[in-house]
Amino acid sequence: MEATRSTRILAAVRQAIARRAEEAEEGAESGFTLIELMVVLLIMAILLAIAIPTFLGVKGGAQDRSAQSDLTNAITAAKAYYANNGSYTAVATLVSAMQSNEPELSWGTGPALTSPAHEISVAVSTDNNILVLATESASKTCWYAEDNDEPSATTGGLTGATSTQGVQYAEGTAGQAPSTGCTATLTAAPASGWQASYP
Questions:
Q1: Is residue 5 part of a domain?
Q2: Could you give the number of structural domains in the chain?
Q3: Is residue 187 part of a domain?
Q4: Which position among 1, 26, 47, 143 has the lowest Cβ density within 10 Å, counted as fewest Cβ atoms?
């Protein structure tokens, strides 16, 4: 009787071990459920929804800063030219001189486009005392810089210019489509208005 009892216990232990082995084998072969996969995808989508706009905002800001840096360098070179010559001279002469003095920028009178990079559009008032520069950032924003060296607070007849003397900055399309570039020959004052620093 004792032998039968121990045989039964031994058989029960063997069955328990066999069941455990089968369960472990099934667990090793099982995968993720559909709900678990959906939850993981949802979490990834939420993270992307947060990350992508942040990345694009940083990228657009960097593109705008690059265009502003080009304008700052251009206005500095132009002011040096003004100091040496007493005026900005005719626009064709100024563009030619600036191309020699500041060759990393591409100077011209037409629209400044994003491609090729570092293009600067130039406009000069008829009395050669006001200079307007424009460039387009890769984010398709027009940026402007103006140096008004008029002896009195006037616009020198230059459309869209400001009568505030000194260097002023602006942002906007000023009546032109950004896809066609940004030109210094303004048809109106820039949308942001002229300011002492970049808007």
A1: no
A2: 1
A3: no
A4: 1
